[in-house]
Amino acid sequence: MTTATDAPPLGTTRWPDWTAIGAVMRKDVTAIRRAKAVVLPMLIVPILLMVVLPMLIGAAAVNQRGPDITRLLDSLPGDLAAPILELPPEEHLVVLVLGYLLAPLFLIVPLMVSSVLAADAFAGEKERRTLETLLHLPITDRDLFLAKVFSSVIPAIVVSWAGFVAFAIVSNTVAWPVMGRIFVPTGLWLVMIFWVAPAVATLGMGVMVRVSARATTTQEANQLGGAVVLPLIFLAVGQSTGLLLLDAPFALMVGAIIWAVALWLTARGARRFTRDKMAARS
Amino acid sequence: MTAIHTDALTRRFGDELAVDALTLDVAPGEVLALLGPNGAGKTTTVRLLNGVLSPDSGISRVLGLDPATQGTDVRRRTGVLTENAGLDDRLTARENIMAAARIRRVPDADRRVSTLLDQFGMSDRADDRVAGFSTGQRKRVALARSLVHSPEILFLDEPTSGLDPEATRDVVDLIGRLATDHGRTVLLCTHFLGEAGRLADRMAVLDRGHLLAWGSPGELAAELFGDLTVDFDLGSPADHELLGRIRAERGVRSAEMSPAGVVTRVEDRDAVPAIVSLLTAEGRSVFGATPRPPTLEDVYFAVLADRGEVAAPPRVSDAALWAVADSREAMP
User: Fold this and answer.
1) Among B245, B251, B293, which Cα is nearest to B272's?
2) Is-contact A186 A99, C-beta < 8 A?
3) B189 vs B322, which has greater pLDDT?
4) Rounded to whole angstroms, how far apart are CA atoms A244 and A234?
5) Of the candidates A13, A57, A121, A122, which lies 20 to 30 Å from B2 by C-alpha distance?
6) pLDDT in tens, A229-251
């Protein structure tokens, strides 16, 4: 008897099997798109951070109702403050807030989206009792892990980049009366978008992989994994209060550290991601 | 080559022995029922055979492949229906099956999935999300998914659990056709003896990981029941005096009252004419004498009772039978 598939011949399993990886990703993304509880936070947070906030700040700057930040700028390190102080005073608030201070807050978007998606992809399979079916399919442990990683990280990066495009459009538009030119993206933003955001998305996923191994529901995984958001919130608060300041070189270094931690977590997660362990726990 | 072979296959979870030195063979095209109560090790056995779990010791071969090291290759050629259907509620019936078809690289998958949905009577719900499906509909979709790549071996884990009688009949009929018409090897895990009796060529009785018995129901009956049960229809229950006389006949091991007369266990069929003669001499009309081979249920409980796993099946007391007989007579 022959099987009605065009699967590779026995003993010649290719790796990675992009067909299988793509099929799992397609299934996950289709399912996620229909889960309002997952999609709404993924939309609301980026809209608040990347659209509403720059609109309010831009409007305040345009109407000259913003706080006097001259003292704040005077207290900043010269490297960071100098390019801003060279600008006309009416541009200070816009450039400082939209060009620098919001950058760490932006990292909440890839972090949150990848965490939520990873919780759904890993713990969610257990909660929905669909994990065992997946384990009985002809996909290797590594390919299944890769599919779940990509299902979490790639949409997170796409949402982040889309959010940034919206942010850039809104910021340049609302600040146009003051700036009279396109000023976003700044160098810091470019580093954030292309270097730090993917690292943060991978970090969120990596944490969730570890957490989901023990959690039985997505809610439990999200609660346990929420601890990872705290350091980034501290980073954002520190930045916005002047305690901690990011410029592009520093952001590059922070990104490198986040990448290292994220890849270490992911590698450890991959080693523990075996059918045997998952089936034994289910 | 056997379709499935295991030799001393063993798996523990911590201190708990889930499968204990399981040794069995399943021939191509055979339906083997794995019987046993919850926690007997049936699901663990399927997971071991499909390379989802690794054994602690022992070996297994599925279609000549080692599931422990060639799991992906094994899973390409097997289909599994898990106890819960394992469908993603957010996807439609078609999408659930298509996901498996894509992973399995089924050629012309769209047409194949449509054909299966049609065969399983789910065409009209194909593009509905499965969240609103009944248990029976879910089972049908899951069964279609397990067949999407025309597997050589089917592992069916409690395929009728949660189904109403009509859906149970449909699923059992379907599994029967898969085995008989399409020659698929089927490993059927169940604790419903009725479906096992209808479908299985052989049965393996598991309990707490141990293989208690293995063989065809007939073989096991011959091993466990060295005698023959015969129902005598006398039109009414036999009285105690008559039962005593029957028990005194040569070759009769036991005689118990039944609503229609008496149920005897005899050494062989040669004892039957003597009992009929006795009954006739006692003035009782004998409307029938029917040999009753042990049912799968008889065999199953006898296996468990033989190993001290459960008490022997309860027998109906004489008093209860008389009460039934009295109530019948009182009926208009």
Assistant:
1) B251
2) yes
3) B189
4) 9
5) A13
6) 666 666 655 655 554 556 788 88
The residues in B 63-92 lying below 8 A from A, measured between CB atoms, are: 65, 70-73, 75-78, 80, 82, 84, 86-91
- For B49, the token pair is 């055979």
Residue range A178-193: mean pLDDT, rounded: 88
Token readout for A120 is 């759904």
Hey, are the CB atoms on B73 and A275 less than 8 Å from each other?
Answer: no
Over range B88-106, report the average pLDDT.
Answer: 97
**Rounded to two decimals, what is the model's pTM?**
0.80
Question: Residues of B with CB below 8 A from A4's CB?
Answer: 106-107, 112, 149-150
State whether B72 and A132 contact (CB < 8 Å).
no
Instruction: Report the residue of chain B nearest A140, measured CA to CA.
Output: B72
pLDDT digits (tens, 9 = 90+) for A151-163: 999 999 999 999 9
In chain B, what percentage of residues exceed pLDDT 90? 59
Q: Answer whether B151 sits within 8 Å of A279, measured CB to CB.
A: no
> Choosing among A1, A6, A28, A146, which should be mutated to test the B contact, i.e. which has the most B CBs within 10 A?
A1
Range A145-149 average pLDDT:
95
- Phi and psi, residue A156, nearest 5°: -65, -40
Going from the C-alpha of A251 to that of each of A154, A260, B25, B313, B332, the distances in angstroms are: 21, 14, 63, 75, 94
- Rounded distance between C-alpha atoms, residue A123 and residue A146, angstroms: 15
Please enumerate in sequence order all residues whose Cβ is within 8 A of that of A15, keeping only pairs 6 or more positions apart, or say none. A140, A142, A143
**CA A101/CA A194 separation, integer angstroms:** 18
Cβ distance B157 to B189 under 8 Å?
A: yes
Q: How far is B148 from chain A (nearest CA, A)?
A: 9
Q: Is A26 helix (H, G, I), strand (E, B) or coil?
A: helix
Of A27, A135, A280, the CB nearest to B91: A27
In b/e form, how buried is each residue of A249-277, taking b as 16+ CB within 10 angstroms? eebeebbeebbebbeebbeebbeebbbbe
Best probe of the B interface among A130, A131, A136, by most B CBs < 10 A, is A136
Q: Looking at the partner chain, which of A34, A129, A139 has a beta carbon nearest the beta carbon of B84?
A: A129
Which pLDDT score is estimated for A83?
77
Cα distances from B206 to residues A202, B199, B211, B213, B300, in angstroms, run 46, 18, 5, 7, 10
Chain mean position to CA B331: 38
Backbone CA torsion sign across A258, A261, A263, A269: negative
Q: Show which residues on chain A lie within 8 Å of chain B, measured between beta carbons.
A: 1, 3-7, 10-11, 13, 19-20, 22-24, 26-27, 30-31, 34-35, 128-130, 132-133, 135-140, 275-276, 279-280
